[in-house]
Design brief:
The chain is of the alpha/beta class. The chain has 2 domains: about 120 residues, FAD/NAD(P)-binding domain; about 200 residues, FAD/NAD(P)-binding domain (3-Layer(bba) Sandwich), CATH 3.50.50.100. It contains 12 helices and 24 strands. A hairpin with a 2-residue loop joins β22 and β23. The C terminus is likely disordered.
């Protein structure tokens, strides 16, 4: 999207292909998953975003093959699209490290459907707890496990704690929602392992103040419908839990493997494409890979982080590089300008790493709000999210607490009609 918009004044035609008809701002997906925002607050139709960009067209379709010598891509409906320059930005999905059977029991968070499914499971857990009289069964229903203590896991765990101890405080009669157990676990030795140790420690304290139990250096051995098996050192134990959420790893889009087959480019162990410093792939200067699908090291030899800011900067760079090539010029290698890393923990609590400046607490939370607002695409989305956040802050409510059913349940249940 950022590459397309950066090409709006270039003397060329841009074709944007996506299997979805909307642009999604993924950093706020967890707020949809926890009822703070509605899906439409963080997603915008592609055609509406680009309706005034006359050199851009949108195709709804899924790329299933490409032919680099012929410079064409093929869609699932067999449509063929020609290109002079190709930008691939299909991102990543969940990585269950060889246990894909866990995906049904521990959903990850990458799409709107993931977010609404997680929201459904969270809210149903409280509803089911209201129906049962068995204390042990109720405790298992009210035990929420978040696997992975990176930014997504920390944000999910903090929001879950706020739901249990604040949002739902007066909603149930048979039990106190504050009795819910929120467990955040990770195989690493601290939460937010990509952040400086002092910010990790502050994040852990903030989570504990919200009532989250943090367990690090813990491995997941098994996930079942009603329990999870954990290993700490040599100790193995089962924990009764009905709601498990996955935030522990990523795996590259299948388009990365397709690129490797068609161009012999190199992939890392999770399927990301190793790119040149100008974001092209070896022997194919007309193909650029950007965002989470690309693997590129910074000046210190460390892989660039899989965050939205990297993708946005790479999108703009790819656009400038294509325009430069039209005029017979080349750009210097891509250089990521690190503007900071942020993670929100809960109400007026966050951590932010801006290099020499590190913030935590209320100031970091305000910075997090501002950065995420300005990075949303479209004035309407920014305004709606700002109003929703203001309402949530004042009322302690999460207005989007809707339980929606997945497709399999809709097929089994008759359509309900109001009289």
């Amino acid at each position: 999207m950022f590459a397309t918009q950066a090409l709006r004044r270039a003397p060329l035609t841009v074709t944007l292909i996506d299997r979805r008809n909307f642009h999604l701002f993924q950093p706020l997906l967890y707020q949809v998953a926890t009822g703070g925002l509605s899906p439409a607050n963080i997603a915008a139709p592609l055609r509406n975003i680009l309706k005034r960009q006359q050199n851009a067209r949108v195709l709804l379709g899924e790329v299933v093959d490409l032919d680099p010598p012929a410079r064409t891509v093929r869609l699932a409906d067999q449509t063929t699209v020609e290109y002079d320059a190709l930008i691939v930005a299909t991102g990543v999905s969940h990585n269950y490290f060889g246990r894909d059977d866990w995906s049904a029991r521990a959903p990850g968070l990458k799409t709107i459907e993931d977010a609404t499914e997680i929201r459904r499971r969270i809210l149903l857990a409280f509803e089911n707890a209201e129906l049962t009289r068995d204390p042990a069964a109720r405790a298992a229903m009210l035990t929420f496990v978040v696997i992975g203590a990176g930014p997504t896991g920390v944000e999910l765990a903090g929001a879950l704690a706020e739901i249990a101890r604040d949002t739902l405080r007066h909603d149930f009669r048979a039990f106190d929602p504050a009795d819910a157990t929120i467990l955040l676990i990770d195989a690493a030795d601290r939460v937010l392992p990509g952040y400086p140790p002092d910010l990790s420690a502050k994040a852990k304290r903030s989570l504990q103040q919200l009532g989250v139990t943090v367990r690090t250096a813990v491995r997941v051995l098994e996930i079942q419908a009603d329990k999870i098996t954990l290993q700490t050192g040599e100790h193995v134990a089962d924990l009764a839990a009905h709601t498990v959420l996955w935030a522990a790893g990523v795996r590259a889009s299948p388009l990365g493997a397709l690129l490797a087959r068609r161009t012999a480019c190199t992939l890392d162990r999770v399927g990301r494409v190793l790119v040149n410093p100008d974001l092209t792939i070896p022997n194919h200067p007309e193909i650029r890979v950007i965002g989470d699908l690309a693997l590129l090291n910074d000046e210190h030899g460390r892989p660039l982080p899989g965050v939205a800011d990297v993708a946005m900067q790479q999108g703009r760079y790819a656009a400038r590089a294509i325009v430069a090539e039209l005029h017979g010029r080349t750009l210097p290698p891509f250089r990521y300008r690190h503007k900071g890393s942020m993670a929100t923990i809960g109400r007026a609590a966050a951590v932010a790493d801006f290099g020499r400046v590190r913030l935590s607490g209320y100031l970091a939370w305000l910075a997090w709000l501002f950065v995420h607002l300005i990075n949303l695409i479209g004035f309407q989305s920014r305004l709606l999210v700002l109003l929703q956040w203001a309402g949530n802050y004042i009322t302690h409510n999460r207005a989007a607490r809707l339980i929606t059913h997945d497709q399999s349940e809709r097929e089994m249940q008759p359509e309900s009609r109001s009289s």
